[in-house]
């Protein structure tokens, strides 16, 4: 029988924190018409037969700068990225686990490799492919449940490191014409498929600091990382997707479409 795995991401606090960092600027941004940041360049012509390649060529070098934050374009610092909470609820024949990760600092976004882009400007649809060699989350944890016949308890420091990370930001948009007569991109929906090739998890102070039991439990969790990742992966994808959407929205709210894709 396949494991019955139930989990959920406590995104309400996360989304509120992200949204509040952007929304305070929204009303003042409505009539602004800024050029693209200098570290992005002049943009790509919509008539370029190699438009996809142009988007990657101009966007890839800008990621490290964007991850540092840019107040002029309403972009907060993204590396490290704060995630208030992730919860995992796992129930199988062998494992009944409730794991809560709190006040996570996610490191690695500044090293994202922007690999491919697929744009259809006629259909207002874009897809961006990314790769990240390593992403690390450091924070606090609280765990309870049972593994095999052994109850598991603990709280303390947590380190979750994933490698071989691939994700795609897929979104649709409309063009919103404003009072200044210019059109701006407005994201209407998005998703972020998220996969990794490996994960290492280290939970300190399991079983009230018993090193033998704690070491064995960490080993068990790492040997079964794929089951945990089935729940953690979508949660991380949701968090990253929201950040990408808000970052794009923040810049697109200030830079009109004609400055992003200037015609020849």
From TrEMBL:
Q: Which residues cross the membrane?
A: none
Sorted keywords for this record are: Biological rhythms, Signal
- Which residues, if any, are the signal sequence? 1-28
Which GO annotations describe the biological process of this protein?
Answer: circadian rhythm
Q: Does the keyword Signal apply?
A: yes
Q: Which GO terms describe its cellular component?
A: extracellular space
Q: Which family does it belong to?
A: Belongs to the TO family.
What is this protein identified as?
Answer: Uncharacterized protein
Organism field: Laodelphax striatellus
């Amino acid at each position: 029988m396949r494991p019955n795995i139930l989990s959920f991401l406590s995104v309400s606090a996360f989304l509120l924190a992200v949204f509040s960092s952007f929304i305070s600027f929204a009303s003042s941004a409505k009539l602004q018409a800024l050029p693209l940041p200098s570290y992005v360049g002049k943009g790509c012509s919509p008539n370029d037969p190699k438009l996809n390649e142009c988007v990657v060529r101009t966007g890839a070098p800008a990621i490290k700068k964007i991850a540092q934050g840019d107040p002029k374009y309403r972009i907060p610092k993204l590396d490290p990225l704060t995630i208030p909470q992730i919860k995992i609820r796992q129930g199988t024949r062998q494992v009944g686990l409730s794991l809560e990760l709190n006040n996570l600092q996610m490191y690695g976004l500044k090293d994202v490799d922007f690999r491919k882009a697929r744009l259809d400007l006629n259909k207002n649809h874009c897809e961006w492919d990314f790769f990240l060699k390593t992403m690390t989350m450091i924070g606090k944890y609280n765990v309870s449940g049972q593994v095999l016949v052994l109850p598991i308890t603990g709280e303390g420091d947590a380190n979750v490191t994933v490698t071989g990370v691939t994700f795609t930001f897929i979104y649709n948009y409309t063009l919103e014409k404003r009072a200044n007569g210019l059109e701006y991109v407005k994201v209407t929906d998005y998703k972020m498929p998220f996969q990794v090739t490996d994960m290492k998890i280290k939970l300190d102070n399991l079983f009230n600091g018993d090193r033998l039991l704690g070491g064995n439990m960490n080993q068990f969790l790492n040997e079964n990382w794929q089951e945990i990742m089935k729940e953690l992966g979508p949660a991380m994808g949701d968090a990253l997707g929201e950040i990408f959407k808000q970052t794009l929205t923040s810049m697109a709210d200030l830079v009109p479409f004609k400055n992003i894709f200037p015609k020849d």
